[in-house]
């Protein structure tokens, strides 16, 4: 078993936040082209909510005390996830109560930001017995 490379994990976490921001802007641009200004603003809000939540979690988990030990890191991960969930719910409630939004665009952008997690995870995982490195050959043995 190997230890986690903290600087790499920190870069990965904040890279996810940056990727989410980029996906948010791209989704908002598509929403603007497809449905206009309200959809674009709604997409910015939805993706922005996800991005802010991820930024809060990354900041808590990889803040100053991140290298204090495994137990502390695990505790900060759970606290960061709880803060993220509360923040996301609170921001959605605030936006839905105070603003006129296009719900489809807002929730689509929010969902699109989760693609960044999956892509980052796939890129960060080591190759499993060479499966990612080389696909098995398909053919008929003769």
List keywords for this structure.
4 helices; 142 residues; globular; mainly alpha
Structural features, described:
There is one protein chain. This protein has one domain. The protein is globular, with a radius of gyration of 19 Å. Helix content is 75%, strand content 0%. The chain is an all-alpha fold and 142 residues long. The N and C termini lie far apart (42 Å). The model has no long low-confidence stretch (mean pLDDT 85).
Strand content: under 5%
Mean pLDDT: 85
Q: What's the total helix number?
A: 4
**Rough outline:** globular
Low-confidence spans:
none
Question: What is the count of distinct domains?
Answer: 1
Largest sheet: none
Work out the number of β strands.
Answer: 0
Helix content: over 70%
Derived from helix and strand composition plus strand pairing, the structural class reads mainly alpha
Following the backbone from N to C, one meets helices and strands in this order, namely HHHH
Radius of gyration: 19 Å
Spatial gap, N to C terminus: 42 Å
Write the layout of secondary structure elements.
Layout: H1 6-35, H2 37-61, H3 70-98, H4 103-124
Helix pairs in contact: 1-2, 1-4, 2-3, 2-4
Describe, in short, the structure shown:
This protein has 142 residues and is mostly helical. The protein is 75% helix and 0% strand.
């Amino acid at each position: 078993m190997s230890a986690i490379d903290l600087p790499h994990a920190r870069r990965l976490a904040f890279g996810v936040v940056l990727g989410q921001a980029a996906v948010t802007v791209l989704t908002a641009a598509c929403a603007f082209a497809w449905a206009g200004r309200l959809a674009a603003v709604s997409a910015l809000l939805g993706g922005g909510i996800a991005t802010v939540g991820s930024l809060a979690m990354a900041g808590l988990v990889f803040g100053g005390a991140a290298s204090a030990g495994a137990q502390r890191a695990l505790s900060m991960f759970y606290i960061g996830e709880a803060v993220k969930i509360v923040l996301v719910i609170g921001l959605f409630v605030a936006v839905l109560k105070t603003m006129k939004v296009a719900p489809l665009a807002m929730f689509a952008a929010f969902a699109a930001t989760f693609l960044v997690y999956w892509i980052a995870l796939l890129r960060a995982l080591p190759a499993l017995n060479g499966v990612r490195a080389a696909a098995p050959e398909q053919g008929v043995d003769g």
